[in-house]
Specification:
42% helix; TIM Barrel; 11 helices; 14% strand; homodimer
């Protein structure tokens, strides 16, 4: 099954478009988890147990797993999410030339992480994305307009002809979508750009970060993020660290936060 | 000592501007190394032993180390290169928002990989690079004009006012260089753009890939890649896999290939 079909079924079965971002910052994990062999694996399992009924997908953030133990924890967290039948988007934002891109794309294979989708950067152009795109069962979310202030530095630059760079990326992503597996990453904090991107790429599902800690608008994220009902609105820290400081109760707090945000998003669907 | 000072001393002591790229594709490592606990570590040590006299720097490619064993091999390969007093540029092309960027920047810290410099993507703008830039002892090579065909898709787009996107990145990188630790990645395969980037960023050292397997021009790489004699011309597969198929002799072949390319580059210095 193709990624966006699988995601559509998951959204139907859970009634949720919430993507739960997994950012296991070792400095913020509950104290008692550090007794485990792999604290991030133990943390991930508890977070998945507590939130999966509200999660259309998980989005582990590669940055927080980049060491030997972390990579093992990442592998096993993805497997555990799959055990709960939740698709996984690896937030890696990779983008590189030819043979290196082919190597990065292997992260999607079962012999490696087996993620269902990945975030990628468009700066190196079409051929840098082809190894990801050619894995037709997998989803490829291309960075378009990001949720940070510096997103404007290049992405909002006006091109000759009047189009902005992120608009160009949105249009190109439509061309790159020959196999129906392309989505866009568009931050909820840039509402005008989110609406504009939806106009330019009417058929692409978006992954919309920024509605939690970053303060983006949930209504706009839902209104513009979904294409035919398919898309993801992501929150990470505002869910997984909702119970920070409460030690044993952290997972329960994460579950409650996921449920609240799921409901808030559903008010706008 | 700042990265580019350290690099300058290394270039002086070796008489080489060659950067040896480490792409340990497991499918291409000599058969006998697979008997080792960590084949990529064993491979890296032998390559470093054979090439370090000709190497101004090493550039391990993160893509080829992204699994639990790989991450250990990467840590130890960097440490081994440091044991030979060779600076290490981690080729990671990372670029992400706020707290994720801060996490990725930790790759430069001794508690993590302890790389001396890193390659980053500019697509997310200044604030996404700040955590790297603020590590003032480390070098930050910003992707500008890449060596792949698709590099033109976005990087060559003309902005309103006539400037191309990669030219804008080159100018911005000059602004981002407040602490003297910014360099640019500019491929040798795009010679016109390489020359133009040098005009726009006269003081920034370049990391110039593409002179090996990709067929870029060595003369142009040296002519435009160095700023005050400081910069790096990279070759990866054409050196480290020069002895592919020769099993035990692979390292000797890599050493000979590094020496040849060092000499060829020095003809143009």
């Amino acid at each position: 099954m193709r990624f966006f079909e699988r995601l559509e079924r998951r959204i139907e079965s859970t009634g949720s478009v919430l993507c739960v971002g997994l950012d296991p910052d070792l400095d913020r994990l509950p104290e008692h988890l550090h007794e485990h062999d792999l604290p991030r694996r133990a943390w991930g399992r508890r977070i998945v147990d507590a939130t999966h009924e509200h999660a259309a997908a998980y989005k582990p953030n590669a940055a927080f797993y980049e060491d030997p133990d972390g990579w093992r924890a990442l592998e096993e967290t993805i497997a555990y999410a799959h055990g709960k039948d939740v698709p996984v988007v690896l937030d890696a934002k990779r983008g590189d030339v030819g043979h290196t891109a082919r190597q990065y794309a292997r992260l999607l294979d079962d012999a490696s992480l087996g993620a269902d989708a990945i975030t990628v950067s468009p700066y190196l152009g079409r051929d840098s994305l082809e190894p990801f795109l050619s894995r037709t069962g997998k989803g490829v979310f291309v960075l378009c307009r990001t949720s940070n202030p510096g997103g404007a530095d290049l992405q909002d630059r006006e091109l000759a002809g009047g189009e902005r760079l992120y608009e160009r990326v949105a249009r190109l992503a439509g061309e790159w979508n020959e196999r129906g597996n392309v989505g866009l990453v568009v931050g909820a904090t840039a509402e005008t750009e989110l609406e504009r991107t939806r106009e330019l790429a009417p058929d692409l599902p978006f992954l919309v970060p920024g509605v939690g800690t970053q303060g983006g608008d949930a209504a706009a994220a839902v209104e513009h993020g979904l294409a035919g009902g398919v898309g993801l609105v992501n929150a990470s820290r505002s869910i997984v660290f909702a119970g920070e400081g409460s030690d044993e109760a952290f997972a329960k707090a994460a579950g409650a936060a996921a449920k609240r945000l799921e409901r808030r998003l559903n008010e706008h669907r």
